[in-house]
Amino acid sequence: MTDKYAVIGNPIEHSRSPEIHARFAAQTHQQMQYDRLLAPLDGFLDAVQQFMRNGGKGLNVTVPFKLEAYANATRLTPRAKAAGAVNTLKFDNGEMLGDNTDGVGLVTDIVHNAAVAVAGKSVLLLGAGGAARGVLLPLLDEQPARLVVANRTPSKAVELVHRFDNNPRLEAGNFGDLDDAFDIVINATAASLSSEVPPVSPRVFGKHTLAYDMMYGSEPTAFMRFAAQHGAITRDGLGMLVEQAAESFTLWRGVRPSTKDVFAELRARM
Length: 270
Ligand code: ATR
Known about the structure:
Blueprint: E1 3-9, H1 17-28, E2 32-38, H2 44-53, E3 56-61, H3 66-72, E4 75-76, H4 78-83, E5 88-92, E6 95-99, H5 102-113, E7 122-126, H6 130-141, E8 146-150, H7 154-163, E9 170-173, E10 182-187, E11 205-213, H8 222-229, E12 233-235, H9 238-253, H10 260-268
Parallel strand pairs: 1-2, 1-3, 4-6, 7-8, 7-10, 8-9, 10-11, 11-12
Antiparallel strand pairs: 3-5, 5-6
Helix pairs in contact: 1-9, 5-6, 5-9
This protein binds 2'-monophosphoadenosine-5'-diphosphate (ATR).
2'-monophosphoadenosine-5'-diphosphate is lined by residues 127-132, 151-153, 156, 189-191, 196, 198.
C-alpha cells in the first residue's frame, strides 16, 4: 500500500506543499501519496486520528493548527519544544512525533542557498509571534555574534527572549532604539500580509545586509522594497518553504531530496 501523507490546515487549498512533495518523491523514487486535508476548525484531532487509522504516515501542519499539533503530539523534538509549535507530525506504532522544521528551513535557505553565514554575524529578528518563536532556536544554534528580537509591542519581545534565558547572544530591542546596521534582518512579523512595513529605522540596513522576509509572493513584499531602497540585498521566504518541506520529507522517508530545481520551478510558476 502506498504510504500516505498530507498537509492539514484550514483553509488549505492555497498550499504549495503537495506539488513540492510530489517533486521530492519523484526525484528520490519514493512510493508515496501527499494530499491536502481540510480539517474543521474544531475538528483537528479527529481529522488526524482518522488519517492515522486510514494508514497515514505523517502530516504537515499549517494555520491554524500548529499549537494543537504541539499539544497533542506524544513526543516532541527539542526544536518543536523551543518553537512551541509543530509543523510536522510523524506516525509510528501509535506514536505521534511532533517536529518543527520551519527554523531549520530558514537557516538552510540563508546559509546554503543565499550563501550568507549566520555564525559570528549580527542578526535582527522582527516580530515576536509564533513565526518568530519558531525560528529562534535554529538561528541561535548557528552561533550569531548577536541576535536582537524587536517587536511592535516590546513586552512580547522581552517575554520571548526570557524563554531562552541565559543565552548571552540574545537580547530584546525596541524598534525605536535600533539605528545600527545589522548583517541580517529577518521579517517574521505579519506586516507583509497587509502590505505594511514594520516601523524599523532604515539605518538597520547596510550595503551588505541581507533583508529576509519570511513571506513570499509573485512580487517583492513591502518590507523587501523598503530594505532595497536603503541598500540591502533582499530575499523572500520561498526558499524557506521548500527547505522546511525537505526537512519534513527527510524525517519521514530517511532520504534528503535536492531542493534547487524544485525552488526554481516554483519561482518560475509564481
Ligand atoms: P505569527 O504566527 O504569524 O507570528 P502572530 O503570533 O499573530 O502571528 O504574530 C504576529 C506578529 O507580527 C507580531 O509580532 C505582531 O506584532 P505585535 O505583537 O505588536 O502585534 C507583528 N505584526 C503584525 N502586523 C504588524 C505591523 N503592521 N507592523 C509591525 N508588526 C506587525
